[in-house]
Request: fold
Amino acid sequence: MNLRLRKRLMLLSAALLFASCGGASNPPIEAAVSVVAVENASSSLGFDVNRHGWFFENYEASEPQLFGVTDAVALFGDAAVCVEISGDCTPTPAAAEWIDMVASAMEYGVCEGLTSASVDRFLVSAEPETGSLVLTSELERQIARLFATQFLHDVIAATKDWRDQSVMDIVSELQASLADPFAEQYTLGVYSKFGGHSVLPYAVDLDSQGRGVIFVYDPNWPGEKRYIEVDTQANRWRFSYFAADQVTDPEAWTGGNGRIDLTPLSGREAPFSEPFKGSGTGVKQLLAISSSARNWTLTSADGVLDAKSVVPGRDGVVAVTRGAPLDRGSQPTHLVLVEWSEDAELQVEDGAAKLSLFTKAGAGSVVVSDTATIKVQAPPDTDSDEETTGLTIEVDVAKETKATVTIASATERIQVKAEADRRTSVQLATSSTRIEVTDTQGVNVVTVEVPRSDERLDIVVDKDGDIETYVPQSISVEERIEAIEESKELLVGDDVTSRTVEVSSIVAEKVEIKDLGINTTDEAKTTTTLDQRSAVSTDSKDDEERTLPADITENDVTGIRVNEAGDSGTLILANGSEIRVRISSNGDVVTSDGRTVDITVKPSKDEQKKEADTTSDKNTTERKKEETTDSNKDEPL
Reply:
């Protein structure tokens, strides 16, 4: 963790925890008649909603704004996403399902991406200022990727830490962080029966009675002075989501702790671990449910969860997406992430809905246009790394309802058209995928057995059992390389040295730095040799040719960063550039565009690593002492 990011640990007594849990017994907070001017707030970051917030409103994303394969490669690396070791990139079936889940969530709004991107640009004084920028394809990619981080373990875990804290604790943290440009900064999530929403806190003003406001940049109200009213003594908050007049809003969101949380910006630092089994939440099995009507019920081992009573951190709910734009004529749609065990049943009463699931045995999804019952069953979860099978998805489709079931094996993504007034069951077996369709009397209508393919395929099975095979969509090698290069630029501050909140040490914590030896295969040679391939690559978009570097000398390599799994990393060259590589189990190095580097990497001896760790610990201790000294200079006792 960056030593300059001050992590304030709040110690709560058991009595306070008991009294503040949920705040359900306390009455809603009353709206303040007047609010102090933001420039007079007691704690302020200096953020201006007109200059530093986006001038455009939160939007429901559509193609080509949606999260895609290149975005997944940028977040997780090509080794986690791509089937091919080199060349073009076809997403694995599970990766394709995860990408589709995030893309679907973006169709409901992208406020989480907008708030994260705006504070990131503000912290580095990026030019031109955010308020003067139009929405370009480059910005859309950054917004999509930052939006997707809310589905990841690092971000969910960091947010969870704040979910049980009282309103007073959250306000106190914001008062301290906003007054200190070197402290951690946060986005803020609020939740109601309508879903979740992300805003950016930039100033706080509190009176002696604990009443006051948190000023927020709200992407649904660009350029407007919006705020969250708080009463820290009553452990309550109030937020006007819908109304222009925040004082008289009859539908203002209200709540206590558990329905308001903070997400640290540092948690969004790349790289991220592969998320497709358990979807990056730190659990092995995950359901993602979205529905515009919010008329569904989920039954699992954790009990019964109703769509209208969803609260993050309760009843197995891991998170509620924060994205909804302001739709003054309808309810916003959100996506709910739910932990589950071996069996679960989703009852959709009416309205369109989508269920996505991620397990160790496979992934899948079901899309229904109206009333349906969806049952999912997975084999018992174990700590074994061995591949498991047996994932089953079963859907009972009502009359007039359209439904599609998709299931992802290791090599195939199979889509099954489910007929109305039928029960469709899809099961992943060891060497095949079995599809059975029965009528209302339980009589078998269609049975299809799809043998497991050795190749990556997309397969469609229609209602009559007819099979069509398709070549899955992929991105070109050039797009793959570009995405890899962009992986270190998720936050603008990654390549801006003037960033207020330094992030280099955060990245270092997530990527294991190993001292690796480089063994040449021929001592007589002074350069490493690439495999004999053309040095000219053709861009598939415009047939423009560009020359790739032909070789890399030993003297060119100054270091290497290796991920925790040891299967990929980044070569650091003397000229300051970096090359992403994959590392085989025997130490062979291959660049992402397919060039084989004629060097072998191997971990240094344990003693060398121990010595390096000892040196690092010593340096860390010295930096901590220096930080403590600087902190004592800045803050009065």
Observations:
- Residues 1-25, 278-283, 495-550, 604-637 have pLDDT under 50 and may be disordered.
- Residues 511-604 form one domain.
